Every structure is written in C-alpha cells, then in structure tokens.
Amino acid sequence: MTRHARNCTAGAVYTYYEKKKDARSSGYGTETQRLGKDSVKDFDCCCLTLQPCRNPVVTRDGYLFDKEAILEYTIVKKNEISRQLKEYEKQKKKEETELAELAVAEKRSKIVHFLKNEQTIASSQPSTSGAVNNSISNMANGKDKQLPSFWLPSQTPDAKTRKLEKPDTTVYCPMSGKPLKIKGLIDVKFKEIKDSSDKTKLIAKKERYECAVTGDVLSNSIPVAVLATTGDVVTMECVEKIIKKNMIHPLTNEKLKEKDIIPLQRGGTGYAQTNNSLKVENHRPVLQA
C-alpha cells in the first residue's frame, strides 16, 4: 500500500481533489469569482466608458450613456458597416465578372466542340493520301490552355475565399441589442445636491444627485426613473406614490403617459434581487490529467 501524506506523490490515482488543488495553484481551469463593489457600475455612469456622464442621455430601455461616447460608438459602427458593404459590393462585382467569363468560356467550348466534330467527320472520309490527323500532343485540340505540369507555382490551387453575406446596416445598442437611433435618445437632467460648505468636486462625491421632486439622495440601492418629457430623474417611490396617481408631472403639470416613465438600469448592489448576475467566470487553459 502507498503511504498517504499532505503532498502525496506516490499515489496510483490522480484524485479529483488533487486535480482541483493543482488547477487553483497553477492557473488552469475555469475560475469563478463574485464581483465586488468596485466592479459594479454606478447608476449615473455611462455604460460604455463606466465614468460619470458629462452629458447624459438614456435609451427607451433605460440604459444611460454619455452623449459623446454613444455618438463615437455609432460613428465607428457605421464606418465598419460601410467597409463591409464595400467588400460585399466588390465580391458581388467579382462574381458577376466570373459569370460573364464562364459564359464566354462555355460559348468558346461549344465552338471548339463543333470544330472537333467537323474534323472527325472530315477525317472519316476516304483520303487519297491515307494520312490521319490524330495528334496525341499535349498542345493540340485546346490542350495548350491546360497545365502541362501541376507543380508550377502560378497554377497551384488556391484556398477558397469565404463568401461574404450582405451586412446588416442597422446599428444596435451595445447593452440591449435593439436598434439604436440617435434621435431616440433622451437627454437626462440630474439634480445636483447643493451644499455650500462642501468644496469637493462633483466627480469625487459619493452622493452627487437627488430626486428632482422629493429631494431624496440617489444611489445604486434606490430604484430611479427618468421622465422622458423633461429628462428629470426621480425615485421609483415618487413615481408610485405621487406621479401614478393622476399621471401628471409634479414640476411642469404636464400630462404623462406610461411610456414616458423610463426605469433607469442600475449597475447593481450586493443584493441578488437587484442584479442579473454578480459572478464572473475566467476561462483558463485546461489542466490535463
């Protein structure tokens, strides 16, 4: 029997526990880790830059972006679509040229076949000289167009190019995956917390904004909504208790519709109910037994 110790290397079997232990210490396998507070986006930060928005806009699905960042993203995507369209048109033109060349080649092949049949009929007639024009040369009967040697570099077969599909010209939201339109973005107006004694810059403050109606401090732990007509940010508690009673904007007395209340997507908190997932997986090379 083998002796067992803390670091047993004489065992005949590589156990599951030993494999997991070696994987953790050597950096192999899939690593699962729960996201901490520093890895969670704040509710007032852009979904692209992950920084506080200077000119915030929101989509109808509640995703907040910095206007400069989302415009740059849209331009990059449109340039990429334009490049793909040019490649697709180039491929399409090349296919049309190849089809035209095939049509010409087929027509030439029919002519050569017809002439060959005519020569065969002529050679089958009794000849005074008795000679038969039957050449076995590799340069006769159109064989000069073929390759006499396969190993010429210019005639070696090429790898088939992947056929490009016609690209989709729609720009999609990087978060929701739905079509993105710049005209559909809504400007957001956060109400800053006014404190004359606090000289800290806005970006360095932990509590930066408050509800436009009730004055409650906004944070990731508090569900908020954007009123699409004016861009004001209010708490969902204010929406449920004040706005939804008569569907009137508390600040402008403007009539609101259900679609004008856009719940703002939060970055998340430590509670599982607030987030879709707080776990991240890092796939590393597999440790073979």
Fold and architecture overview:
- By secondary structure, the chain is an alpha+beta fold.
- The protein has helices spanning 16-26, 67-124, 236-246; strands spanning 30-34, 56-58, 64-66, 186-187, 191-192, 209-210, 224-227, 233-235, 261-263, 279-283.
- It has a three-stranded antiparallel sheet with strand order 3-2-4. The protein has a three-stranded antiparallel sheet with strand order 8-7-9.
- A hairpin with a 5-residue loop joins strand 7 (224-227) and strand 8 (233-235).
List the topology elements.
Blueprint: H1 16-26, E1 30-34, E2 56-58, E3 64-66, H2 67-124, E4 186-187, E5 191-192, E6 209-210, E7 224-227, E8 233-235, H3 236-246, E9 261-263, E10 279-283
Antiparallel strand pairs: 1-10, 2-3, 2-4, 5-6, 7-8, 7-9
> How many strand segments?
10
Tally the helices.
3
Net shape = elongated
Structural class per helix/strand content? Answer: alpha+beta
The secondary-structure element order is HEEEHEEEEEHEE
What's the oligomerization state?
single chain
What about the largest sheet? 3 strands, antiparallel
Give the rounded overall mean pLDDT.
79
Strand portion: 5-15%
Fraction of residues in H or I helices? 25-40%
Computed Rg? 36 Å
CA distance, first residue to last residue = 22 Å
Strand order within the widest beta sheet: 3-2-4
Uncertain segments are: none
